[in-house]
Amino acid sequence: MNRPAPSRPMNVSPVRIGIVGAGIAGERHAEAFAARADATVTAVSELDPDRGHAFARRFGAVHYVDYRDMLAEPIDAVVVAVPHALHRACVLEAAAAGVHLLLEKPLATTLDDAHAMLGAVERAGVRLMLGYVHRFRPETEAARSLIAQGRLGRPATALDRFMSGGMAETPRWVWNRADAGGGVIMYGGVHAIDRLRWLLDDEVAEVYARLATYSNPADVEDGVSAVLTFAGGAMAVLSENAPGYGRLGGWVTEIFGSEGALTLTTGTALEYRGRDGAHRWTYGPDHRFERQAAEFIAALKEDRPPSVTGDDGLRGLEVALALYRSAATGRPERVDRGSAGWHEAGR
Ligand SMILES: NC(=O)c1ccc[n+]([C@@H]2O[C@H](COP(=O)([O-])OP(=O)(O)OC[C@H]3O[C@@H](n4cnc5c(N)ncnc54)[C@H](O)[C@@H]3O)[C@@H](O)[C@H]2O)c1
Fold first, then answer.
1. Which of 42, 75, 176, 284 is least surrounded, with the fewest CB atoms within 10 Å of its CB?
2. pLDDT of 191-213, one tens digit each?
3. In 10 A of CB 274, how many CB atoms?
4. Which atom of ligand 1 is found nearest the CA of 45?
């Protein structure tokens, strides 16, 4: 199991991928890697034997029940797509085996776990990419570039209305604190937090949040209303819901700045209005998992950090945990940055 860190740049082609967790996300990742000529899905680890066998047959992979057995085989990278509380153990084992990681969000459920994971990755010299797949949507990229070009001037206020599926549409463990570490914030909200960070190219400094559990028989929140204040002064209102009876509407982000504003309707449209005119772009089906896989493979081959790092995972987790803290204290809470050293790690 204790193989040395792989020699770099990665010169194995195709890159041998193992999938940990053959569920909703694991399947999307496997499809994306299997479609590439420079990657191959060689192994899957899945506790449910029927699901694991079907998955292995479909992708021509070998099925393992225990991911540690899979890590003892010759694979170059794993996709970790299991319940959140298991992320720590999978990452520690994979790093010890010298295997690169594409890890689903959130990075972890606690800061202790997050630090242990990033430390292990750093020491092992493996790459870790966080699965913030929505960065790979073309409309999100277009919005980011409008902001970077200064078309909005100084961003001042934002509104993000995000929805996850509730219990009827998502696995049961998502609504169990011990497995998921939280509810709608941990499953879907970390995407919204990351997207705001990425769009504004800024870090959340302080949050104020209220939580509700109103529609799912769960021990975690299925609704959150929050205000996020960024270090650069912009503020965002976050409204996230995961009703048990199904979703209403889509994921919409509005950002207003001194010179212009945009409305991002995820998967559908980007609208801009500013002092220099107005425009609306429309979008069809995207290839976000394929583009994410392409970036992961490119980072391994080019021996560079992927565009989405463990540090991005840590920053998102810090904000999520600050939201929970604020809901508990009833006060605004600063975002805990006790770990700023990781910013330099870039892995
Ligand atoms: N980026 C996205 O769009 C997106 C979408 C859905 C889920 N996710 C994330 O992906 C991860 C998995 O979520 P999901 O919705 O696919 O869950 P899921 O329940 O559909 O799949 C998880 C799978 O892991 C298996 N599993 C559990 N413990 C295991 C273990 N020790 N070893 C091997 N397999 C094990 C389960 O049997 C299940 O098949 C989570 O981190 C979640 O937040 C991301």
1. 284
2. 999 999 999 999 999 999 999 99
3. 18
4. 33
